[in-house]
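Newbie here. two chains, one complex. Structure please?
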Amino acid sequence: MGLRVLQDIRGRGFRLAAWAVAVMVAGLLSASAVAEPDGRTEAVKPPSTEHPYPELWSGSHFAAESTQEMQDDDVGNPAMPWYDIGEELWSKREGEANKSCQDCHGDAAKSMKNVGATYPIYYAPWKKLINVENRINLCREKFMKAPPWKYDSDDMLAMMIYVKNQSSGVPVNVNIDGPAKPFFEKGKAFYEQRRGQLDFACSNCHTKYWGQKIRMDTLSQGQSNGFPTYRLKWQKPGSLHRRFKACNTLVRSTPFKAGSDEYVNLELYLAWRGQGLPVETPSVRH
Amino acid sequence: MSIASAKGWLGSAFASLLIGATLVAAAGGTAFAEQKKKTSCISGETAAIVTYKVEKGENLPAAIPKPLNGKRGNPKKGIEWMVERRQGNCIACHEVTKIKESIKDGDLDTLQKYGFHGNVAPTLDGVAERYNEAELRMIVVDAKMAFPDFDTSMPAYHRTQGLERVLGDCEGLVILPAERVEDIVAFLTTLKD
């Protein structure tokens, strides 16, 4: 838009004025870049002073530089094969209804633009929250008449990465009020419940001690803005709920099922803890 | 029994007790009965709880004066349990300078085993100056009882009650058996300065 203004002015022969505008536009652009920190090199401000963190840092802030570079490289990001499959699946007609995602949702770049930043949401027909995975399966079963995908199957991960990547760079902005409120509170209670033989709550590590060391690992804030993430330890992408299961098992507690109400409620609470962090899907982590 | 009610119960128990009086914590016959069918936890070993007596400490509201299994442990073994990830894994959170002395120059194996101490918890250097043996035993057995007013993250290494949704294989078992708790306590009492 700035360029068009510039050309109009040039066309009228106001060269000096054009340069002045160009300088102003450049100034505004750099100012807006400063105003939107990435959560990696610069902390994001929390939405309120009552937020559990004084400053928000994405998991990539705590990752090694080589891992950050891997994530930023559109070709070298190891999750890209899943993105490509997701893109293909988007327009693939399936099920008895012989429909594709695209048939209803059109261009994902437009229709899915904010999905990755706003889910989970309250879904009235279910009278509870729905996250993107469960929403995808709802569409498959109800509208495509196709079988649902397993939670961490390659197809589901591919579609998740493709869909959430459409929100890349969009600040997380979940709604925790209205009918979502009681589910948010349940997620919060889960986060603060000590569990397992080791008797740790999520908060015991991620609220109190982020940035400090457990052995050689730096504890992150446990933010969810990069999921599904390509985890080097897993050698493939994994869902947020897979990470929850791993965390629960680590403290020697019986995990819940991926996609369960408990984990979807936690997912909303966790998203709010990172409210304002830009979506990074697919991120790369250790 | 929830943690909250356990704390409340302990609080009122302490309030009503005279110094020197004892209360018996933990352990019934059930732990031993269940042990037979459960042969592995994360650590791959069975570890049933033993009965112990809690008294008031000098520096802490709770202390366990007598060794859990009746005899004092081996401090050298204690170091091993403290560094092993599936045992105490104490250095995940605590820095202990004396343990770093076991790192051989240029040797990756000993560096990985005895090095890379975390820093989310206080250093254990000089811990024996701050607490006596009975208190150190209490802290290892159940730090939440040792520090009732501080929301400590430290796991209770010898407790089975008041835990939420414990992984099936670990249910009813303790993290560290009595003998290993004593080995660790024996090492901790050497940490003066």
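Moderator note: The first strand of chain B starts at residue 23 and ends at 25. Chain B touches chain A at residues 3, 41-42, 91-93, 116-120, 144, 153, 155-156, 163-168, 170, 173, 175 (CB under 8 Å). Thread marked as resolved.
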